[in-house]
Design goal:
A hairpin with a 2-residue loop joins β2 and β3. The two termini are 31 Å apart. The protein is mainly β and 288 residues long. The strands form two sheets. The protein has a twelve-stranded antiparallel β-barrel with strand order 1-2-3-4-5-6-7-11-12-13-14-15. The chain has a two-stranded antiparallel ribbon with strand order 8-9.
């Protein structure tokens, strides 16, 4: 219990620090807290669906030469994804993402718009996670770097091709076996993110996708596969509908499709079909 509380406190503290730090020199910023819930999450080597509650803190901001994106998820599973061997408690996870996109047009002072492309840039950042589950206990570290295309659409749609430098150091509570930090082969990811208003309606279509190439062999000698993660939501600006300020309180429906999760081959019987998920969710978020 102490370990779980410490994990939550550390993750929230890091999220607030990063969000506050990026806002200091921002030309504009938006920070939100959200909650989402679904009953059809999956995890490799677990044969059944898992229910998860996810609390998220997100901060986005623009500065003189580009934009920042920071997201911290706190994921809480039911007991089908146990916290340890023999545990009746569900696992808990913190997952943090940071991206900084430098806009080449803003840096050069030139308009680089071309056709449907609004601008060109370069993105760098990191992913970091920690989880206290029974069989893997992920401790992911990943750096990313690559070019970004920003399309000229209502709202935004950015497409990036990023190189990934990823490592992990799992621990199996069933066998009490610790694996030394293992670095995968450098591999590419095609990733897109969007937030587009639906006409004049108080609705928006938001989300992201990641298509991640195989990263060589994993720390156990298994070949990895191409990973596909598509996550999108239709959000209603409920605050505006009820007469409040626009963009403050939103509710909606979210859907995630994830195949070969973490690069694991879902066709391998060892993973029990758990490396593929089709997950509808409900979502609510407050912006401030």
């Amino acid at each position: 219990m102490i370990k779980s509380k410490t994990l939550k406190s550390a993750a929230v503290g890091a999220a607030l620090l990063a969000a506050g730090g990026t806002a200091v020199a921002a030309d504009w910023s938006d920070t939100s807290i959200s909650y989402r819930y679904g009953t059809r999450f999956r995890e490799p080597v677990i044969a059944s669906d898992i229910s998860k509650s996810i609390i998220n803190l997100t901060h986005v901001s623009g500065y003189k030469y580009g934009s920042n994106f920071f997201s911290a998820d706190l994921l809480m599973s039911d007991n089908k994804d146990p916290a340890g061997a023999g545990s009746s408690n569900g696992a808990q996870e913190a997952y943090v993402v940071y991206r900084n996109t430098v806009d080449f047009g803003k840096v050069s002072g030139k308009d680089l718009k071309w056709g449907i492309v609004r601008g060109w840039g370069g993105t760098f950042g990191f992913d970091w996670n920690t989880k206290n589950d029974a069989g893997y206990n992920s401790k992911k570290r990943m750096l990313v770097l690559g070019p970004t295309v920003m399309f000229d659409v209502p709202g935004f749609f950015n497409l990036s091709l990023l190189a990934l430098w990823e490592s992990n150091a799992p621990y199996n509570t069933f066998s009490s076996t610790s694996t030394s930090r293992y670095t995968y082969r450098t591999h590419p990811m095609l990733t897109g993110a969007w937030g587009i208003p639906i006409g004049s309606l108080p609705l928006s279509y938001e989300g992201f996708f990641n298509i991640i190439a195989p990263k060589g062999r994993d720390e156990f000698g298994n070949s990895t596969k191409t990973e596909i993660n598509f996550d999108s939501q239709i959000m209603l600006d409920a605050g505006a509908v009820l007469g409040g300020p626009k963009g403050t309180f939103k509710v909606g429906l979210e859907y995630q499709y994830w195949k070969n999760k973490f690069g694991n081959d879902n066709s391998n019987p060892f993973f029990l079909g758990g490396a593929k998920a089709s997950t509808p969710m409900i979502r609510a978020e407050y912006h401030f």
